[in-house]
Amino acid sequence: MYEFLTGPMLWAAFLIFVIGLARRVVLYIRGLDWRLERVAYGPGRKIGMKGAISSVFQWLVPFGTHSWRKQPYFTIAFFLFHIGVVIVPLFLAGHMVIMQERFGFSLPALPMWFSDAFTVLAIVGAFMMVLRRIALPEVRFLTNWGDWGILLLVLFVLVAGFLARMQAPGYESWLLWHIFSAELVLILAPFTKLSHIVLYFMSRGQLGMDYAIKRGGASRGPAFPW
To answer: Which of 202, 220, 213, 208 is closest to 44 using CA atoms?
Structure first.
């Protein structure tokens, strides 16, 4: 089972993930309205890109925007969770071994204690997000079963991986469950709200371009002349 999950299944999950998210990016760009967006983005591309980059990075910094500062609990939960689920999969030593074996390359591996710490922080952040969705009526109202499924699936990936790492009783089974559930996340990403892996950058970039070009936010000159 391990050979299958780290061989054909991994390749299939990876291809669906990459091709599916690339398709979402293309559809997003093609969905831009010619009159409302593309006409302005053409002549204002240079200043618009500055606005896009600024918008993306401001929202990538904890408490870097007013919205983040206004919701400290959510901000802490969000960044604990997302930093963990980005850093650990990309730089965990065990993952690098599989990458080298299956894809022929690997990235620098983090020290195990570092990966363990970020995994625990990500699990804590996930539980904080679960509690927030239960406690706040306005968030609970907007959360559907699909949202719960995705959040709990990613949480399961983290917990199963940590239990396998700690060699908990039945750790070999936990390892297989960890690999299978992680590949399920890759497969589902293009078709669920997990697509925000790329669409976040598209939407934040577009908002930054809109502000810079249409409202003159990135220059001292006037806004785009409609």
So the answer is: 213
